[in-house]
Design brief:
Elements (H helix, E strand, L loop, with lengths): L3 H15 L6 E4 L14 E7 L2 E6 L3 E6 L5 E6 L12 E6 L3 E6 L3 E6 L3 H5 L13 H9 L6 H6 L9 H11 L12 H18 L33 E5 L6 E5 L14 H4 L9
Antiparallel strand pairs: 1-6, 2-3, 3-4, 4-8, 5-7, 6-7, 9-10
Family: Belongs to the FPG family.
Pfam families: Fapy_DNA_glyco (PF01149), H2TH (PF06831)
EC number: 4.2.99.18
């Protein structure tokens, strides 16, 4: 599932391509909306809310989409070859006189009244890149279940909206604790840093083509997807293990030296197995 900065970038691309223009093409390729035609409607805006996208049209309609793992929005100019997947993967096309926004493999696509958007995202916590950001509220949400593993609490969009698996691993590294640490055991000084650091990372990366968290030349990330390469701080081999409830485990990366707290129970050798070829730093 994409991180909040990726969704924010998608919203910006769609907004810049469509907002203030009139649709000259409307092509829904999902059975539920096969007869819907938005041609002639003006596009008002596209905005992100957490990991959700809303494109608003004249007449009080909004198109809600969610990328999840495989979805993507691509924008093409007149005469430009479409590159985003096979034709059968296209779920919707929104075209203007000089642009085409093409939605590929979108698992969530629905038309609703703009006044009903809150019904879709009202359960979300404060948005790290949104106008509703409230660091105190976000931290209180994360700490509300003290026994819950911190990594799981960070991924819960009801606590704060925008963190995905990459930022979960990177934030825990920067805070110096493992993702398996109970949220209530997070030291107070690090807990205070958590919402500030999370927002700083997403804001810094929302305008970048390549996500970076390290500030080190040639090194984009501290731990995510780096197992079993050496830690950039201490040289210890980065480890990877699944974290989740079994139904939606996610590969989680950490440094066993730089990060204190519980590690995953080594009940299954596969959870501790290095999954990637050994490479140098």
């Amino acid at each position: 599932m994409p991180e909040g900065d990726t969704v924010w970038q998608a919203a910006r691309r769609l907004h810049e391509a469509l907002a203030g223009r009139t649709l000259t093409r409307s092509d829904f390729r999902v059975p539920k909306y096969a007869t819907v035609d938005l041609t002639g409607r003006g596009v008002l805006a596209t905005l992100a809310r957490g990991k959700h996208l809303f494109t608003r049209f004249e007449g009080g309609l909004s198109l809600h989409s969610h990328l999840r793992m495989e979805g993507a929005w691509k924008v093409f100019g007149t005469g430009e070859r479409w590159r985003g997947g096979a034709a059968y993967q296209i779920r919707v096309i929104l075209g203007t006189a000089d642009r085409a926004a093409v939605g590929y493999r979108l698992p969530v696509l629905e038309l609703l009244r703009t006044t009903e958007e809150e019904n879709v995202v009202g359960h979300l916590g404060p948005d790290l890149l949104g106008p509703d950001w409230d660091p105190a509220h976000a931290l209180a949400n994360v700490l509300a279940d003290p026994a819950r593993q911190l990594g799981e609490a960070l991924l819960d969009q009801r606590n704060l909206a925008g963190i995905g698996n990459v930022y979960k691993s990177e934030l825990c590294f920067l805070l110096g604790v493992t993702p398996w640490l109970p949220a209530g055991a997070l030291p107070a000084d690090r807990a205070d840093k958590l919402p500030v650091l999370a927002k700083k990372l997403l804001e810094a990366n929302r305008d970048r083509p390549v996500r970076r968290t390290t500030g080190l030349p040639g090194q984009d990330l501290f731990v995510y997807s780096r197992a079993p390469r050496p830690c950039l701080r201490c040289g210890t081999s980065i480890r990877v293990a699944d974290q989740g409830d079994g139904s939606q485990d996610r590969p989680t990366y950490w440094c066993p030296t730089c990060q204190t707290g519980p590690a995953p129970a080594p009940g299954s050798p596969q959870r501790w197995r290095d999954r990637y070829p050994r490479r140098t730093a």
